[in-house]
TrEMBL record:
Residues 24-278 form the EAL domain. It comes from Rhizobium leucaenae. This is Diguanylate cyclase (GGDEF)-like protein/PAS domain S-box-containing protein. It comes from the Bacteria. The chain holds residues 491 to 772 of 772 of the full protein.
Length: 282
């Protein structure tokens, strides 16, 4: 009976593919089978210590090699994965693969780097998240201090007491927590005040117009000094030019990430970059 009801609901949605918040069933099925078919893989983008030019971390970014559409950026499927709940198995793949790869690089003798993994709202709401993180660390042998989880303020502000509880559980595992896309939400300062972050990722929109635009300069400088006062490490996202990097250096921003250093690339390319540059990119 329940099954019957479920089927009707699905058909209803199929005939209304534009219904708000509902993903067409065909795409959902495609996404589900893509997980099984191993069409997802990770690219990594270096994070660089601004003062020394050393690579200090890598952000793992998921990609879908679609059999017909080719390479799909996450913006085209993460929202669908969120809606359908498929972000849970997909996120599990990302977490496990990122930890496995980070440990492999360590074993190869590369200097240990922090690996940053994006965690979406639905994953954060999954009561099994802390257990999944523990399992990924145990399976890979990666020590927890090398794993960073990137969270966004909207994920947390939605239910503050629960957000705090989950963050404390994650911190107790020894992993680091960062606030991603800082400054783009409605309650950025409240999120900083409330939650125990280790790092702040300043959104690309506050880096883009540096150093020409006065307003951007004022905001970026303030965010960097605010973070420093709160003893959070600051990472500037989306650094593309010399001038931006020079501004960030002057403003004493700790770390930077962006096309200026490297686009997100596959694991083989990361190993080459590290070999070529020593561990320096700037
Ligand atoms: P994000 O976490 O803020 O990741 C940074 C995005 O900025 C990446 O886009 C990266 O390629 C892009 N980027 C880096 N440097 C530059 C630059 O200098 N200029 C410009 N224009 N862009 C730059 P990408 O890989 O398309 O990912 C987009 C978003 O998708 C991510 O934003 C993140 O929110 C989400 N995402 C990616 N991978 C995952 C994942 O494994 N799990 C979850 N839940 N979300 C993911
Ligand atoms: Mg991120
Ligand atoms: Mg970001
Ligand atoms: Mg972003």
């Amino acid at each position: 009976k329940a099954k019957e009801h479920g089927r009707n609901r699905l058909q209803y949605h199929i005939h209304r593919p534009d219904a708000a918040g509902v993903m067409p069933l065909s795409e959902q099925e495609e996404l589900r089978s893509a997980i099984g078919a191993k069409q997802f893989f990770l690219e990594y983008q270096p994070q660089v210590d601004v003062a020394s030019g050393r690579i200090v971390g890598l952000e793992a970014l998921v990609r879908w090699r679609h059999p017909r559409h080719g390479m799909m950026p996450p913006g085209q499927f993460i929202p669908l994965a969120e809606e359908s709940g498929l972000i849970i198995p997909l996120g599990l793949f990302v977490l496990n693969e990122a930890c496995r790869q980070a440990k492999e690089w360590q074993v190869m003798g590369l200097p240990p780097l922090t690996i940053a993994v994006n965690v979406s709202a639905r994953q954060f709401g999954d009561p099994a998240l802390a257990a999944h993180v523990t399992e990924a660390l145990e399976a890979s042998g990666l020590e927890p201090q090398w794993l960073e989880l990137e969270l966004t303020e909207s994920t947390l502000m939605h239910d503050v007491p629960r957000g705090l509880h989950v963050m404390q559980a994650l911190k107790a595992l020894g992993v680091r927590l960062s606030i991603d896309d800082f400054g783009t939400g409605y309650s950025s300062l409240a999120a900083l005040k409330t939650f125990p972050f280790d790092r702040l990722k300043m959104d690309r929109s506050f880096v883009e117009a540096l150093p020409r635009d006065e307003t951007t300069v004022a905001i970026a400088s303030a965010v960097i000094s605010l973070a420093r006062r709160l003893r959070l490490a600051v990472v500037a996202e989306g650094v593309e030019t010399d001038e931006q990097l020079e501004f960030l250096r002057q403003a004493q921003c700790h770390d930077a990430q962006g096309f200026y250093f490297s686009r997100p690339v596959g694991p083989g390319e990361i190993a080459k970059i590290l070999a070529r540059a020593g561990d320096r990119l700037a």
